[in-house]
Specification:
Helix content is about 35%, strand content about 20%. By secondary structure, the chain is α/β, with parallel strands linked by helices.
Amino acid sequence: MNQDILFFIYADEKNLPSVSSSSLHLELDSSLFPTLNKLYIKLNKELLFGGDFGNNLDALFDSMTDLSWLKEKKFRLIFKNSEQLLKDEDEDTIFDFLNTLNDIGISINDEPMFSEQTRTMKFYFDSNSRIEQLLDDSYLIWEICQ
């Protein structure tokens, strides 16, 4: 299992990784996603999952661990206003979502060595005590992006 850190907290946008032709940075305003259903709609639209996307965590995992239709190999989901992320969902649903992101990152980052080109997936959240506590309570490893 790859031990790379998948979750990052940033205090300043200048600490985010630079954009390149091989990377896709998807910035998400968390205040627009009080529920998972609203987030599914946005991710489906931005990442071109298609009309048969199932709008559930299993479908999210399946779609995000494929992404073969996109030319980019480095994927960064950047959550702004993350103190409001999924604010209308219960805590267990939020934990399930964060753990699904973790599973997605592990799956992508641990692709076989014979893969055509290494792909990576990382998740960035703006600094606030709520998201730090949610990540801690989900037993997910994160670090400050510097």
